Fold this sequence. Notes:
alpha/beta; six-stranded mixed sheet; 11 helices; 34% helix; 14% strand
Amino acid sequence: MGKSFLKRRLRSFAKDERGNVIILFGFFIVVLAMLGGAAVDYSQAIAVRTRLAAALDAAALAVGAAELSDPKKAQEYAQSVFDANFPSEELGVAGTLSLNLGEETVGLSANATVDTALLGVIGKNTITVGSETEVTRSNDNIEVVLVLDNTGSMRGSKIASLRTAANALVDIMFGDQATSENVKISLVPFSTTVNLGPSAVRNGWIDTAGASSRNETSFGPGANVWNLYQDMRASNVTWEGCVVARAAPYDTTDAAPTRGNPETLWVPYLAPDEPDNGEPGVTSFYSNNYFDDVITASADERQRSTDKYDDGQPVTRFGPNYLCIEQPIQPLTDTKAVLKTAISGMQAENTTNIANGLAWGWRAISPGAPFTEGAGYGDEKTKKVIILLTDGDNVWSGRNNHNRSSFSAYGFIADELLGAIPNGQQGAREMDRRTTEVCDNIKDKDITLYTITFKVSSTRTRDLMKDCATEEAKYFNSPSNQSLITTFGQIAKELKQLRISK
């Protein structure tokens, strides 16, 4: 039924005086039809306005999350996000997008027109709807620690994807700013150990006096690991920055190191020179025998002897820094370039010790020493977040000799730092228990804990990480390189803590 036809029929009804009842009935039929058409037109306009509002919200949130300060870039980015959420092929034609970019707010508004189906009868061919939104950036501070698996199983495309994902998170958190007033991020790469960097010895929390009992764990009474490194200078060997775990209960806490309690200090990592293979008293094979033994005795006595460290011998095998991860911890920083440099330095090496890596992630965000960049736990304006990623099970490599394992942050299995453990398999189970303990301690401090398993087939580790997260929604299983990048982006956007203010 055309518009001109309806107009002619209405004029005809008005002039015709016959059949008044029929005329009135016909008139009301037309009116009801027009009202029905108007209802359809206005319902479509309401639907378009709803879509318009949602698209504006999405664009404003995206601009706010990106922290763009250049109005031109912000306008272009807002338009691209708006267009993706308000496609031109669907009902409604959007007008010009208006952006109001403030220091703490992002305002967007726009109109859209909708062609009418029946209201054109009365000359209304389109309906115009409008919407506006304003997003307020959160003024809270946020501290984020990335505790990332850098083990040998991450070689190749996996470590490359991890670097890409970590950089994407940093870009979202910092936006186009080189530094941030309210964002700090730390990087804690981990494998068998973590690395504090050799300069950490100047900070006062490395045990250089041999006061902690951990000095004696692998060497016997009176040993001082730091002095052994000084003795090895003649062999061109220096401490590379890794430390062994503190004795329980301090291995799973963020207790600040104090000289008054030597067990809270960290002892330098030194993988002992293992017995010379084929010598008297040595009946098993040892892979890390880098100095000639200077005594004839049992395998254990040869290994614990410290006289050989000051002979100036060349290192012939792996050496005292064996399995020390190369990339050191990057403390909390507000500078994007510093973080990107640290991320680019990550390398895939050694085996997995989640408990030790996570404990150091906690210490990086803790307000107390050894790292003091973190805000106090009672600071209501600061959110603390740890993101933990692993690509496999805890591992303590077993060996068929008196040590029963390779050296690690927990020493040898035979040192019984984690109790009487018969082999590497049981050692890994004890590391799982330690991991759970660290997770629980972190959550008790109201630190938000995200966990990610990356291409992990083991239900044991997936369940461990799911239980470790603050809540199940903060656990992510990433089965592919791309899904890992997507996961980091999703977490970063959650952390922006933006809100629709009006």
